[in-house]
Amino acid sequence: MTDLVRVVPGPCTEIVLDNPPLNVVSRELTRQLRAALHTVARDPEVRAVVVHGAGGKAFCAGSDIAEFHDLHGRVAEDKLLLERLVYRQLATLPVPTVAAIEGHALGGGLELALCCDFRIATRRSKLGMPELKLGVTPGSGGTQRLPRIIGLARAKEMILLGEPIDAAHALAIGLVTRVVDPGQAVDAAREMAETLASRGPVAMRVAKHLLDLSTETALEDGLAHELDGSETVFATDDMLEGAAAFLAKRPARFTGR
């Protein structure tokens, strides 16, 4: 069986969609991505994750349209339920995630990138959800995650019109975090991942969890969770190390305890 997803282990782990040139999302790629995410989630040494596509032409150009005929009348059980599970695995990883968008992120590829905490694109990148042009709708989180990131009006524009936008527009509306020169997306994502990995790992996990809760939780409930999170963080050795390093004017050496 061909490996369509590769994991490059380390503190800054990389998950590579290896189905060039367009790295389309087939059912087999989704199954392999599920296994890869299980591996990453179980590794206590992981501090950050970079997701990118092989070949340099596209991060991911969306679903494998060649599979559409076989999905007629049974898309949920044969495709979308698994994708929903796997995309949620990525979205709920406790460590920060960065999508390196070299080339285009379209349809299901953009939906996958939306599951990451950060998205770095290049000046040549196009991002869009053209599903309606094919007579279908986004089904792996696009109609739900995109409005939460860029707002309802802009999400309607992207999804209902189905026209891709360039990286400059994506940056202006908050869809991507940074825009870099072509060929530099993966390196920029690795640099960001290294910065994220240098932070206190317990504090990072708590902060990410609290931020994700903020979109679904009433303010008073969120503040209560924040207080609990602070109690957790202030009980760690890393908190003492961070304060000591600051006072000594040296880099902190966090251990995750």
UniProtKB/TrEMBL annotation:
Gene3D superfamilies: 2-enoyl-CoA Hydratase, Chain A, domain 1 (3.90.226.10), Lyase 2-enoyl-coa Hydratase, Chain A, domain 2 (1.10.12.10). It catalyses: a 4-saturated-(3S)-3-hydroxyacyl-CoA = a (3E)-enoyl-CoA + H2O; a (3S)-3-hydroxyacyl-CoA = a (2E)-enoyl-CoA + H2O. SUPFAM superfamilies: ClpP/crotonase. Keywords: Lyase. It comes from the Bacteria. One of its GO terms (biological process) is fatty acid beta-oxidation. InterPro entries: ClpP/crotonase-like_dom_sf (IPR029045), Enoyl-CoA_hyd/isom_CS (IPR018376), Enoyl-CoA_hydra/iso (IPR001753), Enoyl-CoA_hydra_C (IPR014748). Belongs to the enoyl-CoA hydratase/isomerase family. It is an enzyme of class 4 (lyase). One of its GO terms (molecular function) is enoyl-CoA hydratase activity. The keyword Lyase applies. Its EC number is 4.2.1.17. The keyword Magnesium does not apply. This is enoyl-CoA hydratase.
